[in-house]
Each structure stands twice: as structure tokens, then as C-alpha cells.
Design brief:
It is a single chain. By secondary structure, this protein is mostly helical. The protein is built from five helices and two strands. It has helices at 2-20, 29-53, 55-60, 65-80, 89-107; strands at residues 24-26, 84-86. Strands 1-2 form a two-stranded antiparallel sheet. α1 crosses α2 (29-53) and α4 packs across α5 (89-107). The longest helix is centred in the middle third of the chain and has 25 residues, at 29-53. It is globular. The protein starts with a helix and ends in a 6-residue tail after the last helix.
Length: 113
């Protein structure tokens, strides 16, 4: 049940960010929910692979390169989900930073058992 609530919160954050950022757009709440699912799957499957492949540059940049990996994940979601678009790597970087911030705030509302 917590997973579904987290997906709904992520979809809400995606809609809010697309409303706030001129470089991002989503067509409906259903599309935002699909984006939330795709982001969760990409973070589960693709992100660990990218982190391992870019480990040397991540170490050299003291972890800052992980922000660009998150932006690439957002751009991959843009590619896979019709009705969701982000206009370039810089908008994806801003989108991923704000999405992480919103998720932190919203997920704090869910009590741990």
C-alpha cells in the first residue's frame, strides 16, 4: 500500500513540477502516474548500472555527477512515456532536483511502522 501511495505522491509532484517549470510538460494525471511508474522502474534497473559504469567520474566529482545520472533517468522517462516531455538536459536536471525535494517532503508524510 505504501508503494501505491508513493507512486501517487510522485505523480502529484510530476504534475506540480510540469506546472511550475516551462521546460517540462505532462498531459494528464494518468500520464503523470505512468511517469511515476517508469521513473521507479528506471531507478530500480538502470540507475545502478549507470552508477557502476560512471563510478570513476562520480568519485572525482565527489558525487555531483549523480545529479546528471538522475537527469538522464528523467530524459529516459521522457523518451518512453508519450504525453510527458522535458526540453533538454538542463531542464531535466532542474526537474530531478525539485522532484527529489518534493518526494522528500511528501514521503515524510508517510509514517514508518
Amino acid at each position: 500500500m505504501k508503494t501505491l501511495i508513493k507512486l501517487l505522491f510522485t505523480a502529484l509532484a510530476v504534475i506540480l513540477l510540469c506546472y511550475l517549470l516551462p521546460g517540462a510538460a505532462v498531459t494528464s494525471f494518468f500520464t503523470a502516474f505512468i511517469v511515476a511508474i517508469v521513473l521507479a522502474l528506471l531507478r530500480l534497473i538502470i540507475k545502478p548500472i549507470l552508477v557502476i559504469l560512471t563510478l570513476p567520474i562520480t568519485i572525482v566529482t565527489f558525487g555531483i555527477f549523480l545529479l546528471f545520472i538522475n537527469a538522464v533517468i528523467i530524459l529516459m522517462a521522457d523518451y518512453f512515456v508519450g504525453g510527458f516531455s522535458v526540453d533538454g538536459i538542463w531542464w531535466a536536471l532542474i526537474f530531478s532536483l525539485l522532484l527529489s525535494l518534493f518526494q522528500s517532503v511528501l514521503f515524510a508524510l508517510i509514517k514508518e511502522e
